[in-house]
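Now produce a polypeptide, keeping tokens residue-aligned:
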Amino acid sequence: MKKYFLDTNIIIDLLSQRLLDDSEILKLLEDIPYSNLYVSALSVHITFYVLRIKSNSNLFNQARFFFDLVNVIPLTEEITKKAMSIEFKDFEDALQYFSAVKNCDYILTRDKKDFEKIQRLAPSPVKILNKYHL
């Protein structure tokens, strides 16, 4: 079965329920077992920061449940050095990209354009999907 990397923007959309009207992404995610979903450890931090998640809140419990179900890819020295080796304006996206390349077949993001730019700098077989190109 294929492995899907969820960019941070998709995780934030899911936890803040911004995807409720986006049936294409929800349908895709409903058809993928959690065991085939991957996120970067960096996404955990960013998600908690952006959503201002506080311990023991309802959102905290939802986030913890979600991150317990998916595979969290460690942010390694190898991933960090690869991200630094390319000249790209958004270092965080580069970290996400190289986390996905090492572990997944697809990247699901709202930021397909930037990920495709990174892919031109560091080609890989990973396919980049967004809600318009599933």
